[in-house]
Design brief:
It is built from four helices and no strands. It is an all-alpha fold and 70 residues long. It has one domain. α1 (3-18) packs across α2 and α2 (24-34) crosses α3 (39-46). The chain is globular. The mean pLDDT is 78.
């Protein structure tokens, strides 16, 4: 499955359970993770300024993505 389809499906599933969509940073983390990138690589791709919170956003992302397998 390509990354765009993964984002679409994951966002739909999370929205169905939480009524919230992934933030741009969360989407970048999912996309980058799917493609095997590190947080540092993701931060560089998104811009360090936007992703200074990658660690805390990554934690929230983990909580939301856990909804996908529950």
């Amino acid at each position: 499955m390509d990354v765009d389809k993964v984002l679409e499906v994951a966002n739909s599933l999370v929205f169905a359970k939480t009524r919230r969509r992934f933030s741009p940073v969360e989407a970048a983390i999912l996309s980058g993770s799917w493609q095997g990138e590190t947080y540092e690589e993701i931060a560089n791709a998104v811009s360090l300024r936007k992703c200074q919170r990658c660690d805390s956003t990554g934690s929230r992302f983990s909580d939301r993505s856990a909804l996908l397998i529950s």
